[in-house]
Amino acid sequence: MKHHEAKKKLKYALANQKTISIPKLEELLKSMNISLKEDDNREVEFLKSEMKKLRKYNKRLKRAQEVKRVGS
Question: 61: Cβ–Cβ under 8 A, 6 or more apart, which residues?
């Protein structure tokens, strides 16, 4: 689940005073990168994985630009 989807569902549940099961709440919080534990290691791991994704995305963009330049 994406961050904005989780935020939307949680906001809806809170605004309409809906009941949320514990597993569902944990999933929403995890998707929003909110931890109830005092473990900072989880945030570091999340940020590292996000950086890795961004590096891969950047490489794909550069390759696409090179292919476009060569093709022109």
Answer: none
Specify the number of domains making up the chain.
2
Q: At what angle do helices 22-31 and 3-15 cross, to 10 degrees?
A: 130
In 3D space, the residue among 4, 6, 38, 43 whose CA is nearest the CA of residue 24 turns out to be 6
**Per residue in 18-42, pLDDT tens?**
888 888 888 888 888 776 666 667 7
**Rg of the chain (C-alpha set):** 18
Dihedral sign of CA atoms 2, 25, 7, 41 in order: negative
Same domain? For 42 and 71 the reply is yes
Instruction: Give the integer Cα–Cα distance in Å for 64 and 17.
Output: 47
Whole-model pTM above 0.90?
Answer: no
